[in-house]
Amino acid sequence: MRGIWAAALNPFAADGSLDEKGLRANIRHWVDDLDIQGLFIAGKQGEFFSMSLEERKRNFEIAVDETGDTAQTIMSCSDQNFDTVVELARHAENAGADYIVVHAPILHFISDQDDTVFNYYNELCKRIDIGVAMWSHPDSGYLMSPQLCARVAEIPNIVAIKYSVPRSMYTELTQLAGDRIIVSTASEDEWLDNIEQLGWQLYLCSSPPYLLQTKVDRRMHEYTELAFKGEFEKARAIKDSLDPVRAALMGTRPGGKPQAHQKYWQELLGQVGGPVRAPLLQLSDAEKEETRAAFNACGLKL
User: Fold this and answer.
1) Whole-number Å distance between alpha carbons of 86 and 103
2) How high is the pLDDT of residue 187?
3) What are 75's strand-pairing partners?
């Protein structure tokens, strides 16, 4: 697992169905034009919470089929029902996925969660053979400590973690277990620092790899490759040149409509976006106009 991996937004048709043709077109652009190394499928960005079990399985199959040997896949099998997690994990494995990712469970009435969370990943790994990435984020109601993550990393199937936590925590985990698992986080703004200061090799994963780049403007890819070569001064100059794009993308995003906003930004880039599913909210015409104006002025080359 190396390089830039992106978390896929799922395009839906006007009738709410999964737009398979649009998803395939997006994947081809991300892999062929942007050289994205891996795709995180059916996660929070992809609105997995609005999808049926069969749709999530189909999402896996499309991604494996479309990436082929040109990129890797990591399938989000997170669910509050443990049997569903296992079923999705086995389907991902049988479909030919490279890895799965499962976020730490929401736990009810538990205030001392470490042993339960360890047992959660341990029981999962007993039932499958595919490589597993942990995922800790505030939505679970708690954060896995670096010490707990290092303990879970002893389970043979565990290969990585998407650690959506403050930098001090993922730095500590890198020091504790960076020789056993790949540690990463979704912050593009911190990615270059993490390559230079922590020796990281994997960006896992969010939408900036295909929202900040185009076929003719691959600055995230460029600064990443320079950083991997140790040319940090050149890398930082290119990274900093993206500040107007970041400001336009983040500065126009309504707090309650992240997926809808990103999908509209995709459409401005020529990708397939489409509506979000209920109960998520669509962008208003005024929000679209504000986003379009910022997009046109941000300097991203089309």
Assistant:
1) 13
2) 97
3) 41, 100
**Number of structural domains, the chain?**
1
Residues of the chain under the 70 pLDDT cut: none
In a domain, 280, yes or no: no
- Model pLDDT, residue 155: 98
d(CA 250, CA 112): 36
Within a 10 A sphere around the Cβ of 217, how many other Cβ atoms? Answer: 17
Residue 273 within any structural domain of the chain: no
Q: Which domain holds residue 131?
A: 3-216
Phi, psi of 52 (to 5 degrees): -75, 165
Separation between Cα atoms, residue 184 and residue 163, nearest integer Å: 6
Would 294 be classed as within a structural domain? no
Q: How far is CA 101 from CA 89, 233, 301, in A?
A: 9, 34, 33
Query: What's the CATH code of the domain at 151?
Result: 3.20.20.70
Read off the pLDDT of residues 185-242 as tens digits, 9 standing for 90 and up: 999 999 999 999 999 999 998 999 999 999 999 999 999 999 999 999 999 999 999 9
Q: Backbone phi, then psi, for 182, in 5-degree steps?
A: -85, 125
CA-based max dimension of the chain: 52
3-state secondary structure of 34: coil
- pLDDT at position 205: 87
Residue 168 lies in a domain: yes
């890895």: which residue's tokens?
A: 99
CB atoms within 10 A of CB 259: 22
User: DSSP letters of 254-296?
Assistant: -TT-HHHHHHHHHHHHTS---PPPTTSPPPPHHHHHHHHHHHH
